[in-house]
């Protein structure tokens, strides 16, 4: 293995450049992650951006003292085409970074990786990033057993924990979330809402409604319930259709976003159903016409960006989010002018 030929691999590009001529430059690549005192996880590389590094490079940069130390403290992510990918945490004292490292760095990099995958690049970047965030976060939030309070030993090779007292097995949580794009009967309008607590959006952003799946529910019943609870609109049971899914490891637990499309029950006069917003769930909700939606997309009015053209009363979810993909899909397949 010629370490000098191994380049740092940014997650803005496919990581499969680690191979050439059928031979791997390195059989192991490591992803350094900053872990704050509160347990929040942020990608961190020597260029202040996330990078995959071979073991020897990690040692030469002073991130660890030896390759043995690196492997012992790292977490297995996956193995692909003969290359093993692992993540390892760096404490704030080790990196010299403040405990409050930029919390948006992870979000930006994750969305870049997703956009890269959408454009035909390998899903490997996105998968590695999601797994690293979820597994390292799991190690910091599940140190003790929820059954008896005993200490938990986490095996970094299979990413599961075992209580040393009661022997209960503990696995990383994946929380299912239904996200739904609701249309009127004529598919001329979509129901979008503005959510609370979006400090990373500097503009008014309308997006698809969403909510956690509750115990005992089917995914379809979650869609119907959440739309009625948040916006007072009833969705036809027989209209709910699954679209796609996306891992969303932005919180302490990894969320699995499950995208659906549904049709609202029509009113007698053929107009879209009236909206009754639950202010604890949403700031507002409204029906957006196809023309207004298409114009927002053409002007690239993405959340957090300026867009092109005249100032707009609303922006849309940025590329990389599943809501963004849902809206583009709606405009591209069956939206009526």
Short description:
The protein is of the alpha+beta class and 337 residues long.
Radius of gyration: 22 Å
> Low-confidence parts lasting 5 or more residues at pLDDT below 50?
1-25, 45-50, 95-103
Mean pLDDT: 78
The number of helices is 8
Helix/sheet category: alpha+beta
Q: What proportion strand?
A: 25-35%
Distance between the termini: 58 Å
Assign a percent range to the helix content.
10-25%
Task: Count all strands and give the number.
Answer: 17
String of helices and strands: EEEEEEHHEEHHHEEEEEEHEEEHH
What about the largest sheet? Answer: 6 strands, mixed
Give the overall shape: elongated
Question: Any descriptors?
Answer:
single chain; elongated; 337 residues; alpha+beta; disordered N terminus; 17 strands
Question: What does this 3D model show about the protein?
Answer:
The chain has 337 residues and is of the alpha+beta class. The chain is built from 8 helices and 17 strands. A hairpin with a 5-residue loop joins strand 4 and strand 5. Helix 4 (104-118) runs antiparallel to helix 5 (124-141). It is elongated.
